[in-house]
Fold each of these.
Amino acid sequence: MTVLLELRDVRAAHEGIIVLHGVTLSVAAGQVVALLGPNGAGKTTTLRVAAGVHPVQSGRLLLGGRDVTGAAPRDLARAGVCLIPEGRGVFRNLSVRDNLWMMTFTGRSRAEIEEIAFGRFPVLAQRASQLAGTLSGGEQQMLALARGLATDPAVLLLDELSMGLGPLVVSRLYEQVAEIARQGVAVLVVEQFAAAALGIAEHAAVLVRGRVQRQGRPDGVLRAELSALYLGSS
Amino acid sequence: MTSSETRADRFVRELAELKIPDPAAGRPRLWQRLGAAAMLAGLALAVTAYLVSHHTSSSLVQGDAVTIGLAAVTASVVGAALFLRYSLTGFLRFWMARQSFDLTVLGERLLAERVLSQDVQRDGAADT
């Protein structure tokens, strides 16, 4: 499998305080990697570094084998890196259709974008004229995903997909994420709701205080370590 | 692009072709400084031209002073344009972000009011 996203020994800081201490991880085409860990571990910063939004102090960011450290986020987005931020990032005061049409900057027609979005999330077609702010949390997240898919991403970065959503909605959303990955997209998911992400991830990394404490297949050992992290070891 | 090319292959190919400017070069800042330097140089050249023209009675030297004066005007105009272009960019970017934020806040407030009034109407209808 072609490795599409790779972080090598990345160190990053917020206002002079180091929050990532040499993070190394990679995501191949068609693979879902879950980045888990408690609050303040540096998960979101890792995603922002991968999208080129947050500068690195040292280390390298590689996309498709090419070193793109320090490249402008717009260049990475144009190449096919899509970040869906925490809080969904939809325009609440615009209709669902308008939200989708904004993605025509990618060169796709409105019809194509609607076909992609409504094909994957039929409920959005029923809500097409509704203001995005009046959608349920799950529907807003679907809209955010649909907008992301309209960019034809090769690398999809998802931040806290499950935030504020019920377990059933979360499991449906993750089914869609797994389907997206099956089409060859490299997916990096940052999640606190570990169970949902581990359900579809082939690989997981546990980030604690800016360091990858453990990574590998999401087996029993990793789940036990996560439980200990979240709940405290006995 | 070949028809058998996967998205991953296309991603790798496009990235290899992508011209990524080196952000370390800090070009905008360099242009801004160059603009400021050109403005100052223009000022200095103008003073030089004035002094040269007033300390000679030779028309040839005065011709040189005129040339220096014109160069001073050119340097000042170009420098001012560069300086404004690259200093305003940062300001306008911030202004646009602020506008966008304000619009979002306004939109959310209007939306909340609309939802609230719809709820009130619905409750009123249910009561009657």
Amino acid sequence: MKRHYRIAPGPIQMPSDAEIARYRDPRRLFYNYHRALHAMHRKPLYKDRKAFLALLLIVLLAWLLSDAADRRKEAGDAPPPSEQHVP
Amino acid sequence: MDRESEASLVGAAKTDPERFAPLYVRYFGDIFRFILRRAGSKELTADLTQQTFLNAMLALPRYESRGLPFRAWLYRIALNELRMYWRKRREVSIDLGRQEARLLGEEMGIAGEEEDLERLARALSKLDAKKAQLIELRYFDGMPYAELGQVMGLGEDAAKMRTHRALETLRQIFRKNP
């Protein structure tokens, strides 16, 4: 990042106290503070045993379903026993 | 606000974050102007100021007073916010008032002619970011060395020494670039 200084063409106008006060919003600050604090203290998923087990169960179920679907597909692809070539 | 009442407000805010409000009201203007001078737009300044106070509230339990105004600690957080904002940009433009540039020129023994001021701004643009920040804080924000040190994470003596070195480097750049 390059810093570029330049001489302002006119005097630099700083906003008055009254104008600055319009940007002040303590309610928003406290709301954001509580939200940030909550996010900071939230247990990460890998440390929450219940959430971790639930996630593990979902993954296991998905794997079982996909495995069952694969087996069914394999069985469907194979030719029926009557059409099988017997030497 | 005297140092004692400030310390009691900070102590109260440390135990109960809801009591941070008087500090927010007291220093909002100072931090807003400090950021506006560097960020330019009022809307962006309002966001960065709000983020500065949010970070200050979150870090308040770790705050330790070193006998310096609480404001200096807020300036440090504000400068970090600005640095994070600047990191996303390729170039940053900072406007200097003629009065400020003249004061810096006087410190460097330069006449306050229009051409000299333009040259001074160009020389300042060539200075590395940390040195330029020391000069900004000292000569444009008018910070005492102790506060400046707190903002830059230095001791008072180190802040003084580095600012003088930065001024010397600026003087050399100014002379080399007519």
Amino acid sequence: MPDLGPLWLTLQLAAVTTVILLLLGTPLAWWLSRTRARIKPLVEALTALPLVLPPTVMGFYLLVLMNPGTWIGGFWLEVTGDTLTFSFAGLVVASLFYSLPFMVQPLQSSFEALGPGPLEAAASLRASPINAFFTVVVPLSARGFLTACVMTFAHTIGEFGVVLMVGGNIPGETRVISIAIYEQVETLRYQEAHILSAGLLLFSFVVLVLVYAVNRRRPGHA
Amino acid sequence: MPKDLEVAAEASFADFRLSVELALSLQGITALFGPSGSGKSTLLRIIAGLEQGRAARVVFDGALWADSREKTFLPAHRRPVGYLFQDARLFAHLNVAGNLRFADKRSRDRHPSITWEEVVAALDLEPLLDRRVQGLSGGERQRVALGRTLLARPSLLLLDEPLSALDLGRKADILPYLEAAPRRFGIPALYVSHAVEEVAQIADSVVVLADGRVQGIGPVAEVLERLDLQAVTGRFEAGSLLEAQVVGHDQPLHLTRLQLGAQGLTMPMLKALRPGERVRLRVRSRDVALATEEPRGLSIRNVLAGQVVSIESEPETAFAEVLVALADSDQRLRARITRASVADLGLAPGRAVFALMKSVTFDRRAVTRRL
């Protein structure tokens, strides 16, 4: 029986990352979909950066930023008594950056597809902007939210390079599935690597099938 | 009770400039009429608060809604307007009842005289309540949207070309609802349209907009007969509106008799009309002929006595437009006849004339009921 610790740790990391990104990414995506500000391309480029950057580059800079010598890393150490690097908290922070585009981009295109129509209608029916967002925009963008969350979750599960740079390989703390598989292969334990890899493959496939199936059954929703 | 609306707006677009200053006393339906791209919809959106950042001042019923100079802007959701969009904009995630409820629960305390039951009954929405909005026809969508707008219990209805996306048959289906709602619920309406037939049919007064400017304003019958606005209201379809009362039906001859002042008119029988009911007739100028003596031995049955008010020759054409004040009434009729006839008959302002119209001029579409 292989060690299931990395599996639970990975699921935990993906869940926490998805929830936090949902809270942070939604307003950002909304702003991007509405704004005519001149800095919009700048913000869009920053958001998309993790898509094109080698994970090691991101991981390297995050490692530099989060080490206890910097004010961010120092502040974290002071408040929590633990370093941000080589810890679960550090992994979450790194994942937030790494998976940001997977949350923001589906949401942004979903909001953009909605157009101003439903919001104007809601406003003319006395719904405040906040109220209209939750009662009209969110339900009409349900598909976008589902896609964004699943993509973020799945992507965080598959993360490797950034984790290796920022978190290392500490059992129960930073050893996620991808790291565990890497280690098993390095030490020629192919049998265990097979079990985890096949599990990950199956999981990803099932999740994607579910997403596509749900999306297909709800036509008419942007 | 009329509600005062003041609007001043300036806006620049690629192909025209909107520059409008209006003070209206709104009662019943006021049409904002003009060709496409004349700024009508923009003006309506400015009134609704959907065009933030434009140079505008809007005061409704004593309340300041916007003044760009004082940087005052009441957001759209705080203005008591009901906006009926061209494309209905029903919420796809709610069914018909859900769409109505969306408006209802946010305004229930505002205007207790408008109830859910009343709106559902007035617009015949009962059979649609459980339907998904995706399955509705264009006409049904607009009916639901109108119901939803009414349930927002607005103090002012803004109707933005609500018929333009519909085919002819559907238009005829929804028009009576649009016409009746403002009166039934006592809410004044601004109705944007580029179709003179619609305006003639349902509006009480009209504001003519062209090239971003107000060209004319007044009661609908008066404005539509103004010769100087023909470039906008359309020469070919130009005509007059007459208000008449139904006297009764002549069953054997299949005619409906009408009374206009002391003078009588007949038209092909419209069974739906009841004696005593007031109707509005639209008469195209080209369907009216003039005579200086009461004609005899003629198949034309409708002869109205009157007096020439003015004559406007159309240069470069054979025609002239003659405005006739009808005897015993304050109504006017416009006739388009040849300039040769004007000369032969010796027509001049003050001259007594008889206006001749074939009964068939008044077909079903030329007649609307007045409440």
Amino acid sequence: MNQTIVSYLAQYEFFDFFLNLFKGHESLLSFLVYLVFALIIVGMCATIGGLGTYAERKISADIQMRIGPNRVGPYGILQFLADGVKMITKEDVMPNSADKFLFYLAPVLCLTGVFATLAVLPFSTGFEMSDLNVGVFYLIAISSLVGLGVFLGGYASNSKWSMLGGMRGASQIISYEIPVTISILAITMLAGGMSFGTIVGMQKGLPTNWFIFHNPFAFVAFFVFFTGALAETNRAPFDLPEAESELVSGYHTEYTGMRFGFFALAEYIEVFVVCGVAVALFLGGSNLPFNIKFDNIPLQLFEFAIFMTKTLVLYYVVIWIRWTFPRLRVDQLMSICWKYLTPIAIFNLVGCATWLVVFNGKSIADLVFGGH
Amino acid sequence: MTPATFDGLMPIVIFMGLAVALFLGGHFLSVLLAPKKPSLLKSTPYECGEQPVGSAWSMFNVRFYVVGLIFIIFDVESVLMFPVAAIFREVNDMGEGPYILLIFISFISVLVEGIAYCWRKGDLDWVKSYQISLKNK
């Protein structure tokens, strides 16, 4: 039991009781502890995903000078619960000609891909479920399951709209994975490691130490990453797989009730995860400014609050972008990815490497103000 | 597998299990609560009220395949670059910076050559114009 959460818990007396209870079965105990924390994180993220749908409708209403949902609960804040109940009580319809196994499998793959990324999301220095030494690499790899789910959802339905949406989704997600991966490579290079612990730890102190301000190339890399991440989560202006004005509803046209709900939930949690990753990689993660010292528990809470604040601000930006920009055409989407973002990302990568060698790993702030 | 690595992987397995459990739970609830009134019309694929003609599993445009091929090449190359990127700073601190930079750039230039080739061939254009295909002949 060398993982962070368990070692934090081991400082307290009540934990000795459990240790004695599970004597000889320590792995079972760590399994239970992880299960509890995983349930907390999943519950929190599901709530954020649910509130995300509410925020989306409320903010879009604000932007379009409407009122938005205001019936269920105060200011309509319980709308997502009402939506959930409605989805559960709707009849499940599956096309006769669909591939039944794949039809069931697609939303599971979407959910699995998104939930598995939650395991490495660094909510605070201690509250990270698994600080893998290949953290960002694992994240890129496992989030590809979502693309698989989107494609299978479109394929298994055996409907033309779904097929078109699934094909578009697959090609879009894999295309935009390239600029995103190369931008993350630049950050891996600056941090000198792939684990989120290392990357966040390198950005301690003032915002000038954040990787986004490390050098001009990293600054551009952030925007490349964010644009690519928007496209990977199928958010507008890149929501071609579910373009409602062309493809009815894209890859989930044939999905009804709860199965549709799982696609929507996975999408909203994925947006949260992507924003969290952007915060951890570029925007200083959960570090407190000025390296303020606290006791362990308040420190973790403050760090958690800072991480969530940054992430939710980015979440707002994502929704804002969705309701401000028109959707792209397919050929524009592909040319933006392959002819603009990918060359820019490769240029950034070379630029970051050269910067590291020329300035011996110093950031702009170090060069201007001295230090290190 | 050492216990330490397994400890790091356990949360991931738990999260994946939770995803499956959530799906099964939601599905079970909807089986319990949702009405069941199947009909032939409901179970035809939706095509805006038209009778669907043929199956959707037909031949599809080859350009999606080309995108997939280019992606595979780039993905494998970026996978190969990750270890280099991870030790880049360490090697630079050892004073070997210019050498690793040279190696890194020569590796990336192969990648750039690949994308330049695809670009020149017109594979990055979604809609290939007639002139481009004429040029390539």
